[in-house]
Amino acid sequence: MELDNLYQEVILDHYKNPQNKKLATNYDAQVHHVNPSCGDEIDLNLTITDGVVANISWDGVGCSISQASVSILTDLLIGKPISEAYSIFDQFVSLMQSKGSIPGDESVLEDAIALAGVSKYPARIKCALLGWMAFKDASVQAQAKSELG
Ligand code: ZN
C-alpha cells in the first residue's frame, strides 16, 4: 500500500502514540467491535453529556490503520456536539467509500484526512472504519439510554 509520505507519518505517529487509549471506568455506552478480515479489535467507551461528546476512551489491537484511525477519531470528536460529530462521521465514511475520487475536507477531517489514501484499497477500508463504526454504535446506545432516563 502506498500512501503519501506525510500522511504515512501522521498515521504512524497516532499508532505509536495513541490518543485516549485507556478505557475510562465511567461511561454511558461500551462496545466491542472486530474486523475479522484483518484481525483488528477495539473496545470503546463513550460518554455523552448534554448533547456533547464528553469522552471517548478505547483499547485495542490490530494493524496500524485501525489503531491510528480510532486514535484520530478521539482527538477529532471529543468535545464536539453530537450533531457535529455525526456530520464529521458522515464525511469520513464518504471519503472511505470514494475509492480515491474525492480529496476530503481537511478543515473538517483534520488528521483523518491522512487516511484518504486507504479508500483506494478495499481490503483496508474496514480497518479505517472500525473505530468509527464503534463510535456510531456506542453513540446510539448512549443516546437511547439517556432518553430512557
Ligand atoms: Zn486492519
Automatic annotation (TrEMBL):
CDD domains per UniProt: IscU_like
Protein name (Swiss-Prot/TrEMBL): Unannotated protein
Residue ranges crossing the lipid bilayer per the database entry: none
Gene3D superfamilies the UniProt entry points to: 3.90.1010.10
PANTHER family from the UniProt entry: IRON-SULFUR CLUSTER ASSEMBLY ENZYME NIFU HOMOLOG
InterPro entries the UniProt entry points to: NIF_FeS_clus_asmbl_NifU_N (IPR002871)
GO-annotated biological processes: iron-sulfur cluster assembly
Occurrences of domain NIF system FeS cluster assembly NifU N-terminal (ranges): 7-127
Molecular-function annotations in GO: iron ion binding; iron-sulfur cluster binding
Organism listed in the record: freshwater metagenome
